[in-house]
């Protein structure tokens, strides 16, 4: 056998030995990595537990103290910028935490998982998630999914932002509450499921939870609970762009706000309600609610809401070719914007009026509105060229 540099000649066959190195490297890279939470090397901090014995009270206290030190060491390293070294120590701590009990381990996994998630350490979040899933699966197989463990798992999944797993746990909690007809536990589980789905933009599932909460007739709803559920549903249906579902909820909210004299909220709600009626092509109801919103907001000197209501109302009239009504509303809007010193929107309102007068071929009024708009544009140092161009378009 003759060696030729990095090649070996065997008979008539030449084999490049570097190929074996590349192959070994490739094989090493494709081997599944052992999770740092599954390392089984004996740890010097752990006493001999042969015979499946548990920690004594003294051993448990000593281990708790040592693990607190490890956590403090890891935290200090992390804060000094040594993230990888910190997680190496945290993983050691977490491996040992399981000897203090399953709840202790789950809570500690959540604590470290939050750090990983907040710092975009995706691999570490994955490792911790896998360990939580293993705990859940093993406990389920041994019929050890206690209420305390389910709650701890749900909170842990929630904290490290894994919605699918978190919701699966709370669904188990909900199912168990249904089986024993524990109405209060059902309500608590539904509240959590609704909140989580809303947080993660699962609007249909969130709506289902809040609708069921409203329909839990066996439990008389407190006024604040009913208000909260209705507000959540109204928000959900708005975000989901489902005005037909939002309107009846908003009508209920309007009655509550009126009864509670929450008039600022009522003014804002009326605008949203009017927008929804406009979307489903009910202009009369839309106009009514815009007007009511304006009256409320004007009386309360909530000029932003007053302006919004009038602006939307004017656009509604213009969309239905009720130009005379649109002009009247825009003129009313000018008064609101003048009183509130809202010069930017006042400038835009003059422009809107000018465009309507253009359509009516009322060029005298169109020119007057554009000139008023130009004065404000010059004062603001904004859009002067636009108004000058528009003025030049006006026929003599």
Describe the structure.
Among the domains are: 75 residues, no CATH class; 79 residues; 73 residues, Serine Threonine Protein Phosphatase 5, Tetratricopeptide repeat, CATH 1.25.40. 74% of the residues lie in helices and 3% in strands. The chain is built from 18 helices and three strands. It has a three-stranded antiparallel beta sheet.
What's the arrangement of secondary structure elements?
Blueprint: E1 2-4, E2 7-10, E3 13-16, H1 18-30, H2 57-79, H3 83-97, H4 102-118, H5 122-141, H6 147-159, H7 163-179, H8 183-199, H9 203-214, H10 223-239, H11 243-260, H12 263-279, H13 283-299, H14 303-319, H15 323-339, H16 343-359, H17 363-380, H18 384-393
Helix pairs in contact: 2-3, 3-4, 4-5, 4-6, 6-7, 7-8, 8-9, 9-10, 10-11, 11-12, 12-13, 12-14, 13-14, 14-15, 15-16, 16-17, 17-18
